């Protein structure tokens, strides 16, 4: 057999090896450390939602292929959610699409809307799948860096405007933002909307943490601002809100033309998924406000528990306004390389975290920052804090 001279992996993906989450989770398992790296809860969500999934399974709802766009019950619940929460009207038949989690929604939207040579502006640090999906679509990633200022990470609107060129196809926004925990303000979003309208740009918004705004701030969908409804693909999912991340139920809401485009790509990815779970998520979206208020209160207490402990351990702490991640600065501990720090932390303290540098194109910008997840049981966080305080 002749030797292959061409690499097996598509060159668009050559820069993307094993994800940092896989590496750090394996490190946690190998060392018996507490895993505060990967963002998944260690308890299940509401019992009535789990029972709804069991009921759907027993009744034979979703055990075979569900409809391509998603089951009507879920699409209607998503449309009702957008209307009652944000005043956004969407037709469940033509403007709602159910996906295999938000990750597939992001992939399908980028594959549908981006062609080779198009530029995609993304806020860095960014969720790692953004970079891979832009690459698979043949686009060029253009990062605009969020930087810490007065306790929160801030979007430099002048830098964002300067990043737009004649080749810019779309903006990819994430608010509440992973990993920094910042929640874009109405003023910031209004400036983004004005720029998108002025330059005729499409926008994809990743809003999976919409119900995890922990401080006295509103979540404002970009699609609700003037001129944005028909140029925005809004993405969310059930995993973060209801603590069933393994169910992989996500969705998009957008105009009929944008929804049709995204569905055209999505049908060749999973086609359909999560049949019985779709019925359960439809019921979850109709839970009373007390559930969502309780979720925020619980996560706020866990944020403060972990943030206070990290401060006592000597970290510089950027207390998040949203999501369930705390970004920390390791320089007060005498360290500057987050990747080295995270690889040694299990041996030093028995805790695993994620280095933020892997979420940056400008690696130096993220080098001294490390992310911890607080979506864990209180007793687990208390033990993690006790271990981390040894670093002081």
In short, what is this structure?
With 392 residues, this protein is an alpha/beta fold.
What would your notes on this structure say?
It is a single chain. The N and C termini lie far apart (59 Å). The mean pLDDT is 96. The chain is α/β, with parallel strands linked by helices. It has helices spanning 20-31, 47-58, 72-86, 101-113, 128-136, 157-163, 186-199, 239-242, 256-266, 275-284, 289-313, 338-349, 363-366, 378-388, and strands spanning 34-35, 96-99, 119-124, 140-145, 147-149, 152-154, 168-174, 202-206, 232-237, 250-253, 316-318, 325-329, 351-352, 354-355, 369-373. The radius of gyration is 21 Å and the shape is globular.
